[in-house]
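User: Here's a chain of 206 residues. Predict its fold as tokens.
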Amino acid sequence: ADVTGVQTCALPIRRSYGNLGNAYHGLGQFRTAIKYHQRHLEIASEVGDKAGKGGSNGNLGNAYHGLGQLRTAIEYHQRHLEIATEVGDKAGEGKSYSNLGSAYHGLRQFQTAIGYHQRHLEIAKEGGDKVGEGRSYGNLGNAYHGLGQFQTAIEYHQRHLEIATEVGDKAGEGRSYGNLGNAYHALGQYQTAVEYHQRPLEIGRA
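Assistant: Prediction complete.
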């Protein structure tokens, strides 16, 4: 049998399932997204597409996260991480760490979340992924905020802001200002908090 031919024929189909899943995820229709990602996973498994299998596991994790089923999300992200590590997919590995960190954050296990976000940060730095590096700083800031360590949170959000400004990531810049506003509010520095919360409004208008 021509396995290569089978894989080539299946490629557009499984990509379509993955793309449809992502589209429904964007619409907030997570259960429909799950159905499409499951089909993608089945086909990727049938044809031995390890990378596709890993990606679909990651997408399923994100969809279950959207439904608030964080334990299930963690199981899928762990599978994605295992496959990404096995095939040497550093970008996929970094995404898995980030997603695991976010899921554990949702469970309020902030110290565990920090460990995963630190791993994502290391991979982003190694690969020269400035946007990923910035997001890691932002996620670390949020986790330290959850621990009540607001000054440390501010330091991480400032780093996120610097990188977002440097690379022109306006959405990241806006999130950084908002997160800084939240941290200063938690410290009781309300005027400073107001100034930071006004900045995303200015960015949105621009």
